[in-house]
Amino acid sequence: MSLTHAPAGAVRQGSLRELNLALVLGRIAAADRPPSRADLATATGLTRATVSAVVEDLLGGRLVSESDPAPRSGAGRPARGLVLAEQGPAGLGLEVNVDYLAVCVVDLTGQVRHRTVHRADLRPVAPADALAHLVEMAGAARDDAAHQGLTLVGAALAVPGLVDDDGLVRLAPNLGWSDVPVPALLAEHPPLVEQVPGVPALTVDNEANLAALGELHSQPPGPSSFLHISGEVGIGAGIVLDGALFRGVRGWSGEIGHLPVHPEGRPCRCGGQGCLEQYAGQEAIVSAAGLARAELPADTATARLAELAEAGDGDALRALHEAGTALGVAVAGVVNLLDLDTVVLGGGYAALAPWLCPPVLAEIDARVLTAAWSPVTVRPSTLGAEAAAVGAAGSVARRIIAQPAGWLARSG
């Protein structure tokens, strides 16, 4: 597996056929109900003959399938609708986090067709070894996908750190990674995805960014602008503005976990002091609740906190309130800066939202200038802890939809 880019000219930008393929497939993907060929001709402005030819290509390439016609009154045979295919190309999502590895397969319809999680503390594990284990998990996912009639044509990897344009992980402080050449390390293993023009074999991105994209494209659709906060051992944020991910100049936006909430406070792994994740990260909450982190398996930490809070345990409730207060201080600053009206609590925060939301909202009400006449919504994520891996795989699926000609050239 390696990080590659489509060769210049491999997909000719001016090709009318390729543009028509993308136009028609995009319309099918965005439709509220399965459109007929006539519907597509009206929506795109293409002739019926052109639409029919494009649809035949899409059907033959297993990108779309025909659905049963909707009931109708009046004369004439009802037209069959078109939907994205559940078999054919699919995206592979990979995630490395502090205490787990995850692999996910998402088809063109957005359905999760495979997901596995391996729980382990990865801080003492060398990056090459962690990625080797992830490749093993991805191999099992590829085999399962093939059994379901799916072909993996691209992968996206989510990591909790700063990633440059070449997939180099500059810094992942909670993992202890620095300048890790992820694409080069993965290239030492056999490829797990098919090479398709226009679809990179591998992209690497910040896990909070991919989680935000997963939330943006989840069903039912939510707002087009929001702040998505992934609360794990570390805390990251994805910023979505008008339906697009805001990355910043270097692609490193969203490091909310390292906003100082107590400037002279506890030292952080990043080298700063008083960072949010030292007060609202998973380990900080567990410690404040009086739980022994070493004796608490990674996959039960959040569940145990929720269980204790539900039972009215004073230490757990106090720890969650203090974490929510610290989180609210940081969130209020972001809301003031960007004028957002929705905050989504993802990752481990999703299950803890009943106890985190009240103090977060209290800080927003106290600190956000516009809160009195324009309330801010704080809610749990639709995807929860699965958001980053699902968002990673979904980003590949959407790239296929946006550039179907590469897949058709390969499958033809």
Layout of strands and helices, then pairs:
Blueprint: H1 16-30, H2 37-44, H3 48-60, E1 64-67, E2 81-84, E3 88-96, E4 100-107, E5 112-119, H4 127-147, E6 150-159, E7 162-163, E8 168-172, E9 177-181, H5 182-186, E10 202-206, H6 207-216, E11 226-231, E12 235-241, E13 244-246, H7 277-280, H8 282-288, H9 301-310, H10 314-338, E14 342-347, H11 349-367, E15 377-380, H12 387-402, H13 404-411
Helix pairs in contact: 1-3, 2-3, 6-12, 8-10, 9-10, 9-11, 10-11
Report, as a whole number of angstroms, the end-to-end distance.
Answer: 23 Å
Q: How can the largest sheet be summarized?
A: 5 strands, mixed
Tally of DSSP helical segments: 13
Question: Rg, please?
Answer: 23 Å
The low-confidence runs, each spanning 5 or more residues with pLDDT under 50, are 1-14
Describe this structure in words.
The chain has 412 residues and is an alpha/beta fold. The protein is 39% helix and 21% strand. It contains 13 helices and 15 strands. The protein has helices at residues 16-30, 37-44, 48-60, 127-147, 182-186, 207-216, 277-280, 282-288, 301-310, 314-338, 349-367, 387-402, 404-411; strands spanning 64-67, 81-84, 88-96, 100-107, 112-119, 150-159, 162-163, 168-172, 177-181, 202-206, 226-231, 235-241, 244-246, 342-347, 377-380. The strands form four sheets. The protein has a five-stranded mixed β-sheet. Strands 13-12-11-14-15 form a five-stranded mixed β-sheet, sandwiched between helices. A hairpin with a 3-residue loop joins strand 3 and strand 4 (100-107). Helix 9 (301-310) packs across helix 10 (314-338) and helix 9 crosses helix 11 (349-367). The longest helix has 25 residues, at 314-338. The chain is globular. It starts with 15 loop residues before the first helix and ends with a helix. The model is unreliable at 1-14 (pLDDT under 50). It holds the Pfam family ROK. Belongs to the ROK (NagC/XylR) family. It comes from Micromonospora parva.
